[in-house]
Structures are given as C-alpha cells and as structure tokens.
Specification:
Strand content: 25-35%
Mean pLDDT: 83
Oligomer: single chain
Order of helices and strands: HHHEEEEEEE
Structural class: alpha+beta
Number of helices: 3
Helix content: 25-40%
CATH class of the largest domain: Mainly Beta
Largest sheet: 4 strands, antiparallel
Amino acid sequence: MPSQKPVLKNFKTILVAVVGLGLTLLLYLIGQEIFAGIAIIITGTLLLVLIISADAAKNAQPIILADLSPNHREIIIENVGTYAAEKLEIFASDIDEPWYVERLEFDTTTRLTLPDMVKSLIVEVTYQFKDYPRRSKSFSLGRFEQETDQDLFKPMFPLFGWKNK
C-alpha cells in the first residue's frame, strides 16, 4: 500500500483547492457569476502562494553577499537566503589571517573588522550548508581603477566617418 505522506504534506493545498472550487461552483449555480469569478481568482492566488511557499521551503539554501562598510574599515557578510550557512571562511586579499564564522543564520549579517582602511579589496567566502559540498564565492569590493583612456561616446563600430583624433 503506498504511503500517504505526499497527500498529507499537500493537505493545505488540496483543502484550499476543494473549498475554493466548491465555493466557486456554488456561487455560479445560484447565479452570482461575478462573485464566482472573484472566488476563482482568490482561490488561484492562494494556491499559487501555497505552492511557491512549499517549493521555497523544499529548496532552502543560503545566499551569501559581501560588501564594504561605508567607512571602508569593515567587511559586511550577509546571508539573504532561506537557510543557515555553516563553517564560513573569509579570505581577503593582502590580509594574512582569514576570518572564521561558525554559523550565519538566514537574513542576518556579520561584520569583520579590517586592520586598516582599504580602498578596494577582493574577498573569497567559502561556506557549507546541510551535507552538501563546500561552496566558494568571490567578491570585488570597493572602487577599482577605471581605464581612463576609454571614450564613452566612441561607437562600437565606425559610423559616419568617426576618426580618432
């Protein structure tokens, strides 16, 4: 006999679908087509919300972002995902010692103090979640030197007799 866990897991979705479609059918049969249309739209919206919420819970994972503080003396590490990141290692260019963060919960930030003010910095964040292999992500923080000889108004291919002067 097959297990009923998938049915119980989707019980809310099935309940909303049955009640919503039943209400829509009832309103349509008693001659309230406009209210039946409103009921079917609300039912569809609730079903989409439940389906998207279930999918997000099933595929939860951390999304790690890094940025420099406004005074350029701290690195701000943020987890904007839906699952906690574990065993974070943060390596920064020109800094010998890495930082270690045991756990970074979702929707939280942590600040790492730099030895001195920096203009630009490359940071590599390595982390793990659940039993998946470690992931690594690099960030270029701050302002890097722009090429000064680049003309922003020069066309990509010569038009109308464009000449270098």
